[in-house]
Design a protein that fits this description.
Elements: H1 2-13, H2 15-27, E1 31-38, H3 45-53, E2 71-76, E3 80-86, H4 97-108, E4 115-121, H5 127-136, E5 143-148, H6 160-169, E6 174-177, H7 186-195, H8 214-229, E7 239-248, E8 253-262, H9 265-272, H10 277-294, E9 298-306, H11 314-319
Parallel strand pairs: 1-3, 1-4, 4-5, 5-6, 8-9
Antiparallel strand pairs: 2-3, 7-8
Bound molecules: guanosine-5'-triphosphate and magnesium ion.
Length: 328
């Protein structure tokens, strides 16, 4: 017996095992996993993810179909790591390749997550919400419904008929009314998500906030300014490609060259604006956010080019980063 204890001590004294024993202890109640944020366009998915992360990662605008790619937002604490998966809004209209890409991307985000956050907009239930609800029927993954934008209801009791309608149409485990704007209910969301995460070690190093590259985030910042500044039609025909992103030691600044691709000459003119006024304004806005992203001075050059029909051409899409198997 004494012999056994001694040999156990000897084994634990070996550096390798002692370390793994430590690790085991540290991870035994650590939780980590994925929470997909899904729903139709414009319900506030990206705003919610940003607020849950406590920082702006995913771009937002009042126009539907702002998010075009899947993007991970990683929230790490001493006790858990939640990887939120922001997704493009699932939509019914739009027959172009880019619409297929966006819907496919959103659909594939359901797979292999620990919990689904289905976002709807307080007071609005459309055929697109219904289509998402239908997809979730019989889901083996738990579904939490987030009824967002409750700040639009002064009298919260007026919400009840809507909540009942949602309850009649969606199979869910929990429904949480929230306002991303006012940060109401977000702590409840995090608590709810944690219920479904398995005990396991971190999935990403703790300093990671996303799985996406700086280049990708830079192009998204510029695209956000297009979504926010342009009228109804044009932003859907526009995409952004970063041609150069490098730090210039001599000038002590980042140099970012980006191409805004549009589909028609008329769109190019709109993006440029009267005597270049619109592109200049968008550049000022984008540079501000890029300065935060890159944590340094930024020199930004924007160019507009026509690439006909890029949004309905599968090969052009893939070459522009609309790729199902993106690597960064
Ligand atoms: N009143 C109100 N508006 C909100 C709230 N959350 C988001 N919004 C607004 O709703 C609009 C859409 O927000 P997004 O976060 O871009 O929505 P989304 O679901 O990611 O949209 P897509 O990317 O197009 O699918 C923006 O104008 C937001 O400012 C909220 O809690 N209250
Ligand atoms: Mg979005």
């Amino acid at each position: 017996m004494t012999d056994n204890i001694l040999s156990l001590e000897a084994i634990l004294a070996s550096a390798e095992l002692a370390q793994s024993a430590d690790e085991l202890a540290a991870h035994s109640d650590y939780k980590a996993g994925f929470a997909a944020v899904i729903g139709r366009p414009n319900v506030g998915k990206s705003t919610i993810m940003n607020e849950l992360l406590g920082q702006k990662l995913s771009i937002t605008s009042h126009k539907p179909q702002t998010t075009r790619h899947r993007i991970h937002g990683i929230h790490t604490t001493d006790t858990h790591q939640i990887v939120y998966v922001d997704t493009p809004g699932m939509h019914l209209g739009g027959q172009k390749s880019i619409n297929d890409y966006m819907n496919r991307t959103a659909n594939s985000a359901f797979a292999d997550v620990d919990v689904i956050l289905f976002v709807v907009e307080a007071g609005r239930w459309s055929s697109e919400d219904q289509a998402v609800a239908k997809k979730l029927q019989g889901s083996p993954t738990p579904v939490v419904v987030l009824v967002n934008k409750i700040d639009n209801f002064k009298n919260k009791e007026d919400l009840f008929p809507y909540l009942q309608k949602v309850a009649a149409n969606v199979e869910f485990t929990t429904l949480i009314p929230i306002s991303a704007y006012k940060r109401n209910g977000l702590d409840l969301v995090e608590k709810e998500v944690l219920k479904y995460l398995p005990n396991q070690a971190k999935l990403f190093p703790e300093e990671y906030i996303t799985d996406r590259s700086t280049r990708f985030l830079a192009s998204e910042i510029i695209r956000e300014k297009l979504m926010r500044s342009l009228g109804e039609e044009v932003p859907y025909g526009a995409t952004v490609e970063i041609e150069q992103l490098k730090f210039n030691e001599d000038q002590n600044r980042w140099e970012v060259n980006a191409l805004i691709l549009v589909e028609r000459p008329g769109q190019k003119q709109i993006v440029i604006g009267n005597k270049g006024s619109l592109i200049k304004e968008m550049g000022i806005q984008a540079r501000k956010d890029l300065t935060t992203l890159l944590d340094g001075r930024v020199h930004l050059e924007l160019w507009v080019k026509i690439k006909e029909n890029w949004s309905d051409d599968a090969r052009a899409l893939a070459s522009l980063g609309y790729d199902d198997n993106y690597s960064s």
